[in-house]
């Protein structure tokens, strides 16, 4: 058989040996004895003989296997492959039911050595082979099988065959499947088929698993991931063989290598394509804190040992040690030419070094605060420094002078980076804020939010179009270079073109006027319509009054109506115009109305006029020779500006003309533009006026001197509207675009949403403080520079306006109203895969990324950037709805009609409804900002399925109603409850009652109706709200979980942070009071960190850790509690007494979610697993398990009847730490 030219292992496997050809036993025994000196000794009998060493193997091969074409050796490998195939698969039906370890180990090797690559592919790409080999503990060996070694002495053609084998799609996908699920397959090989069925539907492993349900084997029940991602993981390489984590990473300029600096004091160099370690550099005596390439030939590393090292990449040795700092060196950076290195240290200095063997200092810069980060300007002799004091300083290192100081962050600046062209600077702080700056002018042009924790690293891509950030929330985010996120698009086509828009002074509502005579008021946060009023059939221009209590509506019928801003009811009307009203303005004391009759009418404030049905103007302002298209008051209402189609602006002293009953303007600015002026707006921070014109331009004027300050160009059509607040200018054009500018003329972003011309726009800026300084003519978002160190010479600290958020609303001829966050960047990609905090990230010129984490792994990514076409023909990543939150999911709730609500630590709420084509799959329908801070809890009202409540860190509980009507889908806030502490849990035990717990340790019962009913008095009740409290558990040990104790909504069970579980049963009495029954059980108040004691002594109090009751559920007459140590405890509470029935360790870490469905218990944990348990008496038996991408934070389960037989289907919603909401289906 060996001498045959062509034999295949499959043929040999299926062939039966002829007995007459077998060797006689006596001859075989003699042969064995004569070869014993050449064989490996064995203590037990084995059917296999192995040669003792390599020299003997080489001699045997040379003597017996030598041939011109290696055919003899190849045939022997084929024979051995067939032999081991029979050992591993004795049934010869690809079921691989053998437990023969040697067979599974040797079979892939001999198939590869024989060149039987097709047979090798069939073996490796087989789910049952993978499962069988993993069950024998050989998952690591399985990964090696997918990368077989090319046998020595083969031809180039055979080498190409091996290369083709490795690039086969089937082999690559199976290798990726095994690699990504390696830990699961190693520990739980029985879940191999479940993992395969949860692969993307287009993948080969999924298709193979789905086409043969018999591959399930003994897996009688499994979990289906309904919302699984249909794209393969963007991580294509993972390096995890480290004992200590890498804390910094950088990519070479040529993008062929990357380097890491680690806590083990070693600098390692890797091949970017293969992940192969090229070399390692040892020389530091403490943690390597940062690394950077210096040109293409040097590598610089910074360390906590107070030094930096320069390493020669070609000769692989250190050429210089840079000494000059006396504390930890935290950052290093190289200039673009590779000639200089800058280092920042906790000794409050930055040193610029020459990158040579002598490593001379070029300069030392005294910063005055510990330095976290440094970076070079790509083209100028400048270095930027971020420090602990929240300031960003820019220095000229050649002249050794400070150029500028950028203010805006409120916490320590963690990292910063210049864009590739040097036009922008990005900075990240410890509170998670990312700010974008115009590098040449020092103006803040963007404030990016998306991470739920501190940012440890940020960098621009080499093309400058993307910003990459890595945070402690375990996410890498890729942001677009274009700012602007749409919050809502309100479609009102049936009302005609939208002609005007105005945001209320509180920033909570927006009023829209339409061409067909309607005014509509919307909630900005949720997009919900509050009211709609039909005033006629004329075009309307609507604005809010100065105090926000009224809406002033100018009409083409020459009147101005005044409406209540809460109900839309008519208050009074203003007359005096003889033609259509084109503009309306309001201040604290006056109202101005301009129109096509070339006049501007001046009235008293609305509070004085509302007692009259009709009011005539107090003053007529004439002088324009064209229609008055815009009018506005300055911030202190001393001046009024009117703009006209005659291209002029007239400035009036309001008090003077009001007293005199008329008068001439203080100043007239003639020929402001070359065409009509359509809009003007006064700055609220200085004597500046911006105008918009049909000549495609905007201009900013200094009203004190009536001179032009600057011209803003960029629109491709007439500019119809402008708004101006806190140094931010927004303009809308007939080309359908909306542009945002800084007051210095810097273009910030362009927003595309409208399909027709933009008629009006407005802006709202949310600020923490607003402090005036008469010496400053214009307040900016961040002061650019300071020239001295003394506080007395720092006026910027007292005049700075800290902008928290900016909202822009625009309306157009398409009838749409777009609500935007113009300074927030679009997320192009979110990379998740690390299981602990991210420490650093770097990007190459091909947009491949390298990241390192505290989980001791380094990953290489090929991100897929989500791009959608925009109105200008470009592409961006604008998506109003997303399938994930930007922060950890804090709660999930599902109504009986399969509407779900999820909340996040970023304060947002998502509403999920059933997908049209799949009744068991939920899709995000609506997203809105529900709380200013984290949303901690939420629940549906069981008595009204469209009502739900949420509680948050902002000390508020909101009651919401889901409105799904013909007019649209929106969320309406019904009522709010103020609390004195952040809310931890909330339940609705009856239609008008809300039960909640706060951090103060109390449980409250509050009437949620519009009229608060006095139920039970406590001293801490909020004004105007009556509420009751069920004892104070402890101010330090608060209630962290609370559930209904069975179907009776008057029974509540709660768990605390000190291991106490209790029950509350309240009864209504005839006098509308509540009485309470209470029972408690100590599941374990504290557990020592180190459970061993010395000489029987008691563990000190400071070494004891609290044991939280983190999840609760009810099963028949038993209460189940999950704690922070992963235990599940079953107990009964009755008549004030408690009985613990059983305790079981069910997870490696905290049980964060617990649900009971009939006789099945489902638990979720911060160890990232969902486990299914069958209950038999007091015993739990695990029957299923699912691995989530990150720690589980919340869980909701519903039973849905399916099919004609109404078979129950278990649907699970799972929230995790990365903000994902996973949808699972349990097949029992």
TrEMBL record:
GO terms for biological process: telomere maintenance via recombination. WD repeats lie at residues 281-321, 322-354, 406-447, 448-480, 621-656, 670-711, 712-742, 882-922, 928-962, 1144-1183. Residues 1147-1226 form the TEP-1 C-terminal beta-propeller domain. SMART domains: WD40. This is Telomerase protein component 1. Keywords: Repeat, WD repeat. It comes from Elysia marginata. One of its GO terms (cellular component) is telomerase holoenzyme complex. GO terms for molecular function: telomerase activity; telomerase RNA binding. It comes from the Eukaryota. Residues 550-772 form the TEP-1 second beta-propeller domain.
